Amino acid sequence: MINRRKFIKAGAMGASMVSTGGFLAAYAGGNHNRHAAASGPVVISTWDFGVAANQAAWTKLEAGGRALDAVEAGVRVPEADLANVTVGKGGYPDRDGHVTLDACIMDEHGNCGSVAALEHITHPISVARLVMEKTPHVMLVGAGALQFALENGFERENLLTPEGEAAWKTWLKERKYEPVINIENRSFNVERLPGNRYNHDTIGMLALGRNGDLSGACTTSGMAFKMHGRVGDSPIIGAGLYVDNEVGGATATGVGEEVIRTVGSFLVVELMRQGLSPRDACREAVKRIINKKPEAAKKIQVGFLALNKNGEYGAFSLQKGFSFAVCDRYQQDLLLDGESMY
């Protein structure tokens, strides 16, 4: 249930409330199949830091810009935030001390681009967009992705921050690698278990433009202290992100291996195509993960967020604690708690 609804000025909202009864009815009474402002753009994204990201995206949407431009501009905000240890430049390194970034982007025409295991570049989402627009490929990885970025004018940087290096050196003192999902995090700090709010590792964003077109973006630094070369769901079209302009879009966050196994975001979109609401489609995708690995599902976090062609949005996760941000013409800083299975 929602416990963090914030409304901007009550007086300014009053007139809008009178004229938009359907919008208000959706928010009253705890209905988790939300509906955006009628005939207006909307942007949604994962986690608390999605609020600032949404506001950057909103400047594009409000001016009538493409949803694609909006999602790129939006996720660039956490990518550049040094205080964000799960996305972009401030991200924690892998177990060998390398900060490696993953990202993908998808537009209303089904065009998509992706980069994985990219080092030294602050904005992998913008590199992913250039992969989509300038190459015949969908994904570039590692050294090839870096070469492409540098050839296209991106600046090479050291992404390992002093804070990230200190956390890595602390982890090194008690490191323990076993073939268990992210066992490194357990030995680092019990409060940073895979997929929880300290290590959820992703911002996924979906936008519906003024013209009714959809786009999405997803970017991450991956799980802290992962094996070097590990890639999760975030840069994989259909897993961490999927957009179908006839139906809607979906994005995922949490333990990427489980999202990949279920092709989670594609699954959510296909369930919406069959008539499920965004919330119910996300819930069914979560249930699919539980059905495949019921015991493991109790110990990790995976969350899905979806937006359909009508501007309805919803979310569902395995564990409590998954939040998502919403921005529309009524409010630009709304933060909601998604429902969970456990």
Description:
This protein has 342 residues and is of the alpha+beta class. Helices cover 34% and strands 21% of the residues. The strands form two sheets. An eight-stranded mixed β-sheet has the order 5-4-3-7-6-2-12-13. It is globular, with a radius of gyration of 19 Å.
- Please give the largest β-sheet: 8 strands, mixed
Radius of gyration: 19 Å
Annotation, overall tally of beta strands:
14
Count of helical segments?
12
Shape: globular
Find the structural class using helix and strand composition: alpha+beta
Q: Low-confidence segments, ≥5 residues, pLDDT <50?
A: 1-32, 178-190, 193-197
Tell me the series of helices and strands, N- to C-terminal: HHEEHHEEHEHHHEEEEHHHHEEEEE
Core attributes:
342 residues; alpha+beta; eight-stranded mixed sheet; six-stranded mixed sheet; 12 helices; 14 strands; globular
List the helices and strands and how they pair.
Elements: H1 10-19, H2 21-27, E1 34-35, E2 42-46, H3 50-62, H4 67-79, E3 101-106, E4 112-118, H5 124-134, E5 139-141, H6 142-151, H7 162-172, H8 183-188, E6 203-208, E7 214-220, E8 241-244, E9 248-254, H9 256-262, H10 264-273, H11 278-292, H12 294-297, E10 302-308, E11 312-317, E12 323-328, E13 334-337, E14 339-340
Parallel strand pairs: 4-5, 11-14
Antiparallel strand pairs: 1-11, 2-6, 2-12, 3-4, 3-7, 6-7, 8-9, 9-10, 10-11, 12-13
Helix pairs in contact: 3-4, 4-5, 10-11
How would you briefly describe this protein structure?
The protein has 342 residues and is α+β, with helices and mostly antiparallel strands.
